[in-house]
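Researcher: We plan to redesign the surface later, but first we want a full-length starting point. Tokens attached.
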């Protein structure tokens, strides 16, 4: 079954990423190979080869049929011409809030059953993504709706089209009873923890049903760094805990025999309803079921076979899973637990208590199996994942079970439910502390790279660790030595060769999706900071690597979270003398955060003085935007705050920098009229390189170097290919932090150069 699963995966990949000719060619080669195997290896091996061929063809056919159904239908054809239509359909996922250029909007997934345009009406069943006003956020899952708008082609392979509407929702029928019941459970779950601190209030529902809406981005980064992100999404672990708890209760109530299977099936169905029957949830339910099978008698063999069967079935149902990282990670983690963990546990049990050996072996095996793919996604290898999972594990089960019980009890007796929810909150408090403290270690992860050579070498290293690991940890001396090496690697910060470079002028810190700039002043350990990024730790690490302990001035261009949330990382442990901000005090949440962080450091934010040239050591700084008299109160629409960004001209040792914050085309056009003939050497591209630019103005600056501060795989499409191409067409060299890491601008003998950190 493992072989058939691998062949099925290959069939799905071939059909979804290759051509029909490639798929048919692979099937032909498979048929020839099956015939050869049958003739040379006998009937048994021949039957296995034939079964593999059948699975390959079946999954490839399913992928082709699905692609044809989604890609060739009336909705797809209407989307090409941007037709105005009216559709009827059912909401298939909870609406989600999106940040857009002109304010927030809702993303709603529909299963469209009818589309009308002109006098034509067609019945069908196709998935559509709707971009709608925020009034749609209250539409419940399972509701039937009618909506009009304009279609457009979709970039998602499993979505027929997108629909943009400005109309409020028109619900034609309420959700089915089971969806209403699951919705009440989810609401009750959040009510049971409503009195807890914000992080705990979000993490308890995330553990139970994957609902992590409102989680602090910095805490999310800590979970990612420490290998705990599986706790924030619906995973097989969630189902194993929930269904396992149901079975324990059933046994306590003297349920025996086949009725236990009924309880298990009901638990799985209830879990899927509460967590939502979307592909990731169904995948987690299947993998959790495999884990439950693996816990039984002869679990390793039965679990492995069940994993193979489950993989083939899921690929037949949804061949697009073959290209989904989440699915691959689920399969790899489950396979690691089934195949590697028993050997590691038995080796450790020679000198450790068996319960502790198992507690170490399970997360270590899952992490090792997933390590190469995680490196493909993030370019990093976590060194603290096993430790973090080991420390967090004792609290995960109680937090999940108490959270579920708290939600269910809240439906009946809210006061008792909140008491149980408080217990879940105490458990997740420990998990949060584990994530934060392990992520704060000097080297929680190392940059590995995601190129073919790097990944191939990591696969070899991981395979070697899987084979040699049990031999090394079988003895106390070598086992403790391995632990000592890992602890030393985590506690000692790995230096980056050649970083920081001598005589750097400006550093664009790799802070993710945000801005964090450091300007040299010519004095040792002293620099001016412009924006602080979204994460205090990333900003603090960047400044520490540069050896900065004194900051004469911090300038926050505007109050969006991706520019100000990291301010505490600048202020903590450093001598900071001044803080300047934009005139526009918007959005209010960002203003309040800056005020609080500054107050704790004894600073009072001041508006950046317009057109005043100031000298700080070798650095000359002048704010050329926003204009005096511009608004100080905004509507909170996002775009207004961007256009009120403090725009700076900086000059260091003869090199001129244009630092544009997030200023948008309207502000750029005004600057072009105010500053005719302005030329600079280095351009910090505004708004993370978005497509909303006055391209003619940016090109007119004549920069030799353009730098873009942007997060990898961000949801905004930054930087826009058109913006990058327009800058490169002027001869400028374009660097970006999502690919190049932190970027240092240096100058030698009148020549501009850059040094970057590896990602």
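Model: Full-length starting sequence:
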């Amino acid at each position: 079954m493992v072989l058939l699963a691998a062949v099925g995966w290959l069939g799905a990949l071939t059909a979804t990423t290759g051509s029909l000719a490639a798929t048919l060619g692979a099937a032909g080669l498979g048929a020839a190979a099956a015939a050869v195997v049958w003739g040379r290896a006998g009937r048994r091996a021949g039957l296995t080869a034939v079964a593999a061929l059948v699975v390959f063809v079946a999954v490839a056919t399913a992928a082709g049929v699905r692609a044809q159904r989604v890609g060739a239908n009336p909705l797809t054809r209407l989307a090409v011409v941007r037709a105005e239509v009216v559709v009827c359909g059912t909401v298939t996922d909870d609406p989600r809030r999106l940040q857009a250029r002109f304010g927030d909007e809702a993303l709603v997934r529909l299963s469209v059953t009818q589309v009308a345009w002109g006098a034509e009406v067609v019945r069908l069943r196709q998935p559509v993504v709707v971009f709608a006003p925020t009034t749609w956020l209250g539409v419940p899952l399972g509701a039937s709706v009618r909506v009009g708008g304009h279609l457009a082609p979709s970039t998602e392979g499993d979505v027929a089209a997108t629909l943009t509407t400005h109309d409020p929702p028109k619900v034609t029928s309420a959700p089915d009873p089971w969806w209403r019941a699951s919705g009440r459970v989810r609401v009750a779950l959040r009510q049971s923890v409503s009195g807890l601190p914000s992080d705990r209030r979000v993490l308890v529902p995330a553990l139970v049903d994957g609902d992590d809406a409102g989680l602090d981005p910095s805490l999310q980064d800590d979970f990612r760094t420490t290998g705990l992100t599986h706790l924030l999404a619906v995973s097989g672990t969630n189902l194993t805990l929930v269904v396992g708890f149901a079975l324990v209760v059933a046994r306590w109530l003297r349920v025996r025999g086949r009725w236990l299977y009924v309880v298990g099936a009901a638990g799985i169905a209830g879990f899927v309803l509460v967590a939502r029957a979307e592909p990731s949830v169904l995948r987690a339910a299947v993998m959790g079921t495999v884990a439950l099978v693996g816990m039984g008698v002869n679990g390793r063999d039965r679990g492995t076979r069940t994993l193979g069967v489950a993989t083939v079935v899921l690929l037949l149902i949804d061949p697009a899973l073959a290209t989904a990282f989440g699915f691959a990670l689920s399969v790899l983690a489950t396979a690691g637990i089934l195949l590697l963990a028993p050997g590691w546990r038995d080796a450790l049990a020679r000198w450790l208590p068996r319960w502790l050996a198992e507690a170490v072996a399970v997360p270590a095996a899952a992490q090792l199996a997933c390590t190469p793919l995680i490196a493909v996604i993030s370019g990093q290898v976590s060194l603290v994942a096993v430790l973090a999972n080991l420390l967090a594990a004792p609290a995960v089960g109680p937090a999940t079970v108490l959270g579920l019980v708290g939600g269910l009890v809240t439906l009946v007796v809210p006061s008792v439910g909140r008491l149980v929810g408080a217990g879940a909150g105490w458990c997740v408090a420990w998990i949060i502390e584990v994530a934060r403290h392990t992520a704060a270690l000097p080297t929680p992860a190392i940059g590995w790279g995601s190129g073919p050579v790097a990944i191939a070498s990591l696969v070899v290293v991981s395979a070697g660790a899987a084979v040699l690991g049990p031999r090394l940890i079988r003895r106390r001396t070598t086992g403790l030595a391995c632990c000592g090496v890992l602890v030393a690697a985590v506690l000692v910060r790995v230096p980056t060769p050649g970083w920081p470079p001598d005589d750097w002028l400006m550093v664009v810190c790799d802070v993710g999706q945000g801005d964090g700039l450091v300007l040299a002043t010519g004095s040792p350990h002293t620099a001016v900071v412009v924006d602080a990024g979204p994460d205090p730790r990333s900003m603090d690490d960047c400044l520490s690597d540069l050896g900065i302990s004194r900051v004469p001035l911090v300038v926050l261009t505007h109050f969006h979270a991706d520019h100000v949330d990291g301010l505490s990382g600048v202020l903590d442990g450093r001598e900071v003398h001044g803080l300047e901000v934009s005139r526009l005090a918007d959005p209010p949440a960002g203003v309040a955060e800056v005020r609080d962080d500054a107050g704790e450091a004894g600073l009072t934010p001041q508006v950046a003085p317009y057109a005043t040239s100031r000298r700080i050591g070798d650095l000359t700084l002048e704010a050329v935007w926003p204009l005096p008299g511009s608004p100080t109160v905004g509507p909170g629409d996002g775009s207004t705050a961007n256009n009120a960004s403090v725009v700076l001209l900086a000059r260091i040792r003869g090199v001129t920098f244009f630092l544009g914050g997030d200023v948008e085309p309207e502000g750029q056009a005004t600057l072009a009229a105010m500053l005719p003939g302005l030329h600079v050497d280095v351009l910090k591209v505004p708004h993370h390189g978005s497509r909303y630019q006055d391209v003619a103005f940016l090109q007119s600056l004549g920069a030799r170097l353009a730098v873009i501060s942007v997060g990898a795989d961000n949801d905004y499409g930054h930087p826009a290919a058109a913006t990058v191409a327009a800058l490169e067409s002027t001869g400028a060299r374009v660097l970006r932090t999502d690919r190049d890491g932190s970027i240092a601008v240096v100058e030698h003998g009148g020549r501009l150069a850059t040094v970057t950190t590896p990602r």
